[in-house]
Amino acid sequence: MLVCERVGIRRFFVQAPDAEHDALHASMGTFRDSPEVSFVSSLAQLLDAMPRTALCVAIRGNLAIAPSQLRSVLASHAARRGEVVELPVGKAPVGSIAVGPLDRLIKANATGSVQIGPIGHLPYALDGLPDDVRAAELRLARDLRNESYAKDAPLARLLDRRLSWRISYLLAHTAITPNHVTIASTALGMLSALAVRAAALLAAVGRRRSVPGLDNNRRC
Fold first, then answer.
1. Which residues is 98 bridged to in the sheet?
2. What rounded mean pLDDT belongs to the chain?
3. Neighbouring C-beta atoms of residue 177, cutoff 10 Å
4. Residue of 127, 65, 138 lying closest to 92 (CA atoms)
5. N- or C-end of the chain: fewer Cβ atoms within 10 A?
6. Residue 195: C-alpha distances to residues 25, 185, 199, 200, 203 (Å)
7. Distance, CA of 37 to CA of 68 (rounded, Å)
8. Is 144 exposed, middle or buried (0-12, 13-18, 19+ CB in 10 A)?
9. Interval 74-131: pLDDT, tens
């Protein structure tokens, strides 16, 4: 849901059997008490809550995704308005991201959809395999640099991002938190400033001692 919010999605409907609603509600984190989140037993119930032609995004499966993937699917749909554009995930597939009018999304299995190919390392479907979590984490880390690519300076694209995602992936499996990294980088910056200042003072002292005749003038 956080990823969806980043691309401008504000209203959420979660389809699940009635017996699972309480457990899902307890696991929603910051969205637990949000009035913008509703549970439904069937997607057909959405027709009573929203216009049939409302543009919607349907995410099926347990997927690891990034904002850039959602934006790409939305951009593909913008060129095919009125259709359902779908990005299948997995070989079966075991999940998908689809964009289209609400009524067409509900009937997509019957009416068909325009399918597009995968984008980068994501989305990734977690389907219960032992290595799923680590594989999803690695793909998310690799795809991080794509999220800011358009805004990054050339040096950041060519060097910084290629290093930072590897460091982030390694630190993610330690007790180090983002706050620790911020404190360490701030401390390093302050120490660097002190080192530059100390070097400048030492250089000034060295120049003063090397001035010819300075000691003789003091004796006079």
1. 58, 86
2. 81
3. 10
4. 127
5. C
6. 53, 15, 6, 9, 12
7. 23
8. middle
9. 998 898 888 889 888 877 678 889 999 988 888 765 457 888 887 777 888 887 777 8
Please, which residues bridge with residue 95 across strands? 89
> Could you list the residue range(s) of the whole structural domain that residue 30 is in?
2-127
Phi first, then psi: give them for residue 40, nearest 5 degrees. -135, 150
Cα→Cα distances 186→89, 128, 165, 170, Å: 41, 41, 20, 20
Helix-strand-coil split of the chain, %, nearest 5: 55, 15, 30
183 lies in some domain: yes
9 domain-assigned: yes
Q: What is the pTM of this model?
A: 0.68
State the Rg of the chain over Cα. Answer: 27
Which of 85, 87, 72, 90 has its CA nearest to residue 114? Answer: 85
